[in-house]
Amino acid sequence: xxxxxxxxxxxxxxxxxxxxxxxxxxxxxxxxxxxxxxxxxxxxxxxxxxxxxxxxxxxxxxxxxxxxxxxxxxxxxxxxxxxxxxxxxxxxxxxxxxxxxxxxx
Length: 105
Description:
Blueprint: H1 3-6, H2 17-20, E1 27-32, E2 37-42, E3 53-59, H3 61-82, E4 99-100
Parallel strand pairs: 1-4
Antiparallel strand pairs: 1-2, 2-3
């Protein structure tokens, strides 16, 4: 084996300008089937009774589990640097932000 064989290939990721600004979401619905996890992201605004999904991500179960691990790792890093993330308990709401649902995608 030479030195080049030991180096991992680096993946180059392109971020198109149209995607770079992102979409704000404060609500997510997660569903799954035997082969996929579907995460729908939406924005809930005060006084607006309807939330429209503005982004959908479909993942294989293995990638969903990797995403969970990556989010956990990053939350630990964030809280180490900035302190604990507090989840404010609000009054009863018809739909709780970032709910987890079960069902067919």
